[in-house]
Amino acid sequence: MQDKNIRYKNLPVVVLAGRPNVGKSTLFNRLLRKRRAITDPTPGVTRDPVESDCLLTDLKPVRLIDTGGFKLADCDSLDKQVVEKTLNTIKKADLIVLLLEAGEITSEDEELISRLRPYLNKLIVCVNKTEGGRLQADSWNVLSFGFEKVIMISSEHGDNVGELSQEIIRRLDFSKVEEDNREEEQTIRIALLGKPNTGKSTLSNRLTGANASIVSDIPGTTRDTVEGNFTWKSRNFIILDTAGIRRKAKVTENIEYYSVNRAIKTIDNADIVVLMIDAEEGLSDQDKKIAALAHDKGRGIIFALNKWDLMLDASLRGADSKNIFKTAEDKIHFQFGQMEYAPIVPVSAKDGTGVDKILNTAVKMYAQLNTFITTSQLNQSLEVWLTEHPPPSGPRTRFKVKYAVQKSANPVHFIFFTSRTQAVSDAYVSYLRNRIRKDLGFSMVPVILEIKSSSEDRKK
Fold first, then answer.
1. DSSP 8-class letter at 121
2. Which of 228, 205, 260 minimizes the C-alpha distance to 38?
3. Looking at residue 43, what is its pLDDT?
4. Residue closest to 444 by CA, chosen among 347, 334, 358
5. What is the predicted pLDDT for the residue at 57?
6. Beta bridge partners of 406
7. Which residue has the higher pLDDT, 148 or 262?
């Protein structure tokens, strides 16, 4: 059997389209066999297109895209952006799965069908929510729109989804699909996190050179995590644009609850977290919590002071701007005492100022995250550290550091084996961590330092 973990390139693109709340995201998750897109009874949950590689029946790989709902009635500016994004995504599809709901065809369905007529040769029509034969008799009326075939499915229960997979495979050309043998570690995964409306989607779109994420002044526009790829100076990047994280007391909708939790879980899938901070508003308690989560998980952290251009009045540009930045930098270092290692970059996602510096910093940070120190080199350095600053010698505070090993890279994790773990003070742990950063090349990244008993190691 073919390895499901193999990565591919030149995949055919399959786009799911339909009006709001017909079950596109549920079908998307069903085909992926995992919960990737947020689903909720509230219409219009999906706004940005959500993409993922998908292995269909017989392990045929495709690039699957879930689009925002095609909405016409009671449209606001955000709804219009969603519709525009959906139509643009449809244009690049190799195959379109039009999802309709069992029962009456709405005016929005009819309008979308009309927009899809130029693509009839790459269209599959499905009627969803027909579990147990529900409303199937009425649903065959869809054929009156001139379609040669319609598939009755239930995204929720899986009815006939296998038949749909087979139809997708039958209609696609897989001849150009190849295994992608690029080294996974060469791809730097960056998660953009922060409060709502701090410019995450604007930066994501600038980095990818696309408009994958919808940009709006309305807080909470991004709901799903939007993934994009780009190359900068021969380095491959994946950018993860997440939902804005607000205080728990302000998270009232189920949709936002899932969005925020998914954003937090994105930290696990990233190498580096770029924490977007509104330079005018400054830091919030939520910023501190996000940074603490990233720090505890050993992720690289870059503080991006966005909208920096708005901080600088025209009369203050030049030499004084350095003083303004120094003041902001000192304030962040004061509030994040344990994260002085984390670089701070002033940036304007809107006009691109500082973006190259973020990427250059990310490349250097990624190299440090993936540095592995040999045990012999580490213990030679340890001898020097112990000589220059010996452990306490009092009867209750005495301990010996026997040796150390690096447990892992990315996250950077060291274990020090000592004679009496309970005697090792936080101050001495900080000393060892600082020497690791200074002497071994980990100046920009968090260092996890674990103290274990040397007798515990001997038992293994």
1. G
2. 260
3. 41
4. 358
5. 79
6. 414
7. 148
Q: 351 with 358: CB under 8 angstroms?
A: no
Sorted by sequence, the CB contacts under 8 Å of residue 306 that are 6+ apart come out as 198, 199, 203, 276, 277, 278, 279, 347, 348, 349
Residue 100's DSSP bridge partners are 127
Question: What is the distance between the alpha carbons of residues 315 and 318, in angstroms, rounded to a whole number?
Answer: 9
Closest CA relative to residue 197, chosen from 301, 293, 292, 284: 284
Q: How far is CA 385 from the centre of its chain?
A: 39
Q: How far apart are CA 454 and CA 272, in angstroms?
A: 33
Mean pLDDT, the chain, integer: 81
Of 319 and 330, more confident: 330
Task: Provide the H-helix boundaries in 297-425.
Answer: 308-311, 319-335, 355-369, 375-388
Q: Which residues contact 285 (CB under 8 A, 6 or more apart)?
A: 247
| 99-143: pLDDT as tens digits | 999 887 888 899 999 999 999 999 999 999 998 888 887 788 888
Query: What is the pTM (predicted TM-score) of this model?
Result: 0.64
Angle (CA) 364 210 112, round 5°: 150
Give the lowest-confidence range in 5-14, 34-43, 420-429.
34-43
Q: How far is CA 441 from the centre of its chain?
A: 27
Can you tell me whether residue 448 is helix, strand or coil?
strand
Peptide bond into 411 cis (omega under 30): yes
Residue type, position 33, single letter:
R
